[in-house]
Amino acid sequence: MTKAMAATLVLCFCVLATVASGAEAAANSISSCLLSNGVRNFSLPASPSFAALVRSSIRNLRFALPSVGKPAAIVLPNSKKDLQAAIRCARSSSLAIRARSGGHSYEGLSYTTENHVPFAVIDLMNLRRVRVDSRSGTAWVEAGATLGELYLALGKYSNLSSSSSSLAFSSGSCSTVGVGGIISGGGFGLISRKFALAADNVLDAVLVGPNGDAFTRESMGEDVFWAIRGGGGGSWGAVYAWKLQLVHVPRNITVFSLGRTGPVQHIAKLMHKWQYVGPYLPDEFYVSVFIPTGTSSNGNLSMSFTGQALVPKQHAMSTLNQTFPELALDESDLSEVSWVESTAKFAGLDTVNDLANRRFEQGSYSKSKSDYVRSPISMRDVVEIIRYLSNGPQQGSIQLDPYGGAMARLDSGAIPFPHRAGNLYSIQYGVSWQPSDNDRADEYIGWLRSFYAFMGSYVSKDPRAAYVNYLDLDLGTNDWTNATDGARNGSVIHARSWGESYFSKNFDRLVRAKTKIDPGNVFNNAQSIPPLPQH
Ligand SMILES: Cc1cc2nc3c(=O)[nH]c(=O)nc-3n(C[C@H](O)[C@H](O)[C@H](O)COP(=O)(O)OP(=O)(O)OC[C@H]3O[C@@H](n4cnc5c(N)ncnc54)[C@H](O)[C@@H]3O)c2cc1C
Ligand SMILES: *[C@@H]1O[C@H](CO)[C@@H](O)[C@H](O)[C@H]1NC(C)=O
Ligand SMILES: *[C@@H]1O[C@H](CO)[C@@H](O)[C@H](O)[C@H]1NC(C)=O
Ligand SMILES: *[C@@H]1O[C@H](CO)[C@@H](O)[C@H](O)[C@H]1NC(C)=O
Ligand SMILES: *[C@@H]1O[C@H](CO)[C@@H](O)[C@H](O)[C@H]1NC(C)=O
Ligand SMILES: *[C@@H]1O[C@H](CO)[C@@H](O)[C@H](O)[C@H]1NC(C)=O
Ligand SMILES: *[C@@H]1O[C@H](CO)[C@@H](O)[C@H](O)[C@H]1NC(C)=O
Ligand SMILES: *[C@@H]1O[C@H](CO)[C@@H](O)[C@H](O)[C@H]1NC(C)=O
């Protein structure tokens, strides 16, 4: 060993030792603060259960790798008061705050920081009560509840009532997604063409702000209340609970899942026609398209349609037969189920009681991106798109979600989510892979990026729009370097480059709301809304 090498080694040890003792000091500091404030449920890196707890809701395994920085503490509040103390203690220990509800952030933003900034995860898994008020048709739900827990509570409630309709809530289809994250970013689902987004159906909220104070709609003010309904999670504070407007759906609704296979031309023809059907069906209907990459050995591709209609089977059959004869739907493809059964079915669960299960099957490694389509893509171009997909790696896909209906009737400034009238459908691009295949991660992500570049000429432009719940750090990042980077000159201009993709003209109002509720930028992440500098 040369002298220089030895010196380098010594230097490395020193740096590691400093980092370790810094993290340890922060852990000790937050630990004593939490204890003296009566917060009992938290875990530190030295605890044997710490790693499993951090990992418990990591959906995207890319952010569970050893190279990704781990928190200095994970706190599990049992009450609003605990949540307030957790925020105050993280701050007094100079730790950045990451609130986590369902852990389904596509880019892991609820449990990671940029530039190895030390942080605490405040995980809301123990805050998951749902309180339904049938008379007013509303519910208070704690932010740590999953969609499955919320849907099951509504299903149980509807079961007990003798009403001719069922209570439902308009939100996403995956049962383990947290209401804390999904509502913060909008929340699109199978009844959004009828009842709009989850965030459009929020009546009130309790938000714990940067000083640990709790605000309601009235005390936070309308700008902030506007911002938290779709302006993205992690920028405003920690939402403790949402008050939701529930909706009434028929006790029986109609559902179907349909697979089709064929050569490029056949798949292209169905996708091309769908563009003229999906966004224009009556509001009660949702028909989406999913097309995986690759072909079978004979060169055929596959695609599938997911359908739901808030009408009886016969009615659904006749509407779909008339508007989309190419689908060649058969009456036996359709079934009638209750709304809550349909949520279990489309979440891929066997029974409604599985909706209560917060644990998902092993997560996978994945990368996603999104787009909006404002005018139908021509048949010739659809053929090229399908050809591109047919040559992709296994486990790539596109999902097309129909807009129109109530989605198009709301004003693009009603809440921060701007993708209203004029948007026919969203595209979600995804690629995922198993742990055994992780050495090919760069290849898979590279394919997704090339495909996205290829799609550029067919989708919205100036800016090319994206959905904040389908978070995509390729669009740009804040690059914060410490727990609260304050308000820096230049942050807003920088954030505008992706902020306008997510929020269009609503971006500036979000910056104003941020400056009001969190001028010191305590709640930040790689794509959070920055505050204006204070003079
Ligand atoms: C399998 C899967 C299916 C999906 N399906 C849909 C769908 O059908 N429709 C749809 O619209 N989206 C869907 N999404 C996207 C989903 O809405 C987002 O990933 C959402 O952010 C997840 O919320 P979460 O609470 O589970 O995630 P988390 O990772 O816990 O949080 C996401 C972000 O919100 C912040 N946050 C979390 N809790 C709070 C809180 N209480 N207060 C303030 N900020 C908070 C986090 O800090 C983070 O920045 C899906 C995602 C996955 C992985
Ligand atoms: C903390 O919460 C977790 C999750 O609910 C639970 O399993 C654990 O028992 C709790 N620990 C304490 C000390 O309350
Ligand atoms: C509703 O009641 C039926 C019949 O008792 C039962 O099978 C079903 O699981 C219940 N659904 C819910 C959501 O509780
Ligand atoms: C391929 O698709 C065509 C057209 O849909 C179909 O007739 C044929 O049976 C398919 N081949 C296989 C092996 O699935
Ligand atoms: C579907 O439409 C065709 C032609 O319009 C008609 O002949 C057929 O009876 C319809 N089928 C159903 C089940 O409505
Ligand atoms: C609801 O659907 C079930 C299952 O298909 C069926 O048995 C029942 O008769 C339907 N109820 C009504 C009111 O249509
Ligand atoms: C935090 O960031 C600001 C702005 O970049 C910098 O001035 C400050 O020194 C940093 N603080 C710490 C503790 O690193
Ligand atoms: C930001 O810029 C303004 C002038 O444009 C200046 O007065 C102020 O000091 C700057 N603030 C910081 C934090 O650099």
Could you characterize the architecture of this molecule?
This protein has helices at residues 3-36, 50-55, 80-92, 147-160, 179-185, 192-195, 217-220, 222-228, 264-274, 313-323, 339-346, 379-390, 406-409, 441-455, 491-503, 507-517; strands at residues 42-43, 73-75, 96-100, 119-123, 130-133, 138-142, 165-168, 202-208, 214-215, 238-245, 247-250, 253-262, 285-292, 301-309, 335-337, 365-373, 396-402, 425-433. It has 16 helices and 18 strands. The chain starts with a helix and ends in an 18-residue tail after the last helix. Helix content is 33%, strand content 19%. Helix 4 runs antiparallel to helix 11 (339-346), helix 8 packs across helix 16 (507-517) and helix 9 (264-274) packs across helix 12 (379-390). Among the domains are: 3-123, Uridine Diphospho-n-acetylenolpyruvylglucosamine Reductase, domain 2 (2-Layer Sandwich), CATH 3.30.43.10; 253-337 and 362-458, Vanillyl-alcohol Oxidase, Chain A, domain 3 (3-Layer(aba) Sandwich). Bound molecules: flavin-adenine dinucleotide and 2-acetamido-2-deoxy-beta-D-glucopyranose (NAG) (7 copies). The site of one 2-acetamido-2-deoxy-beta-D-glucopyranose has 3 residues, from loops.
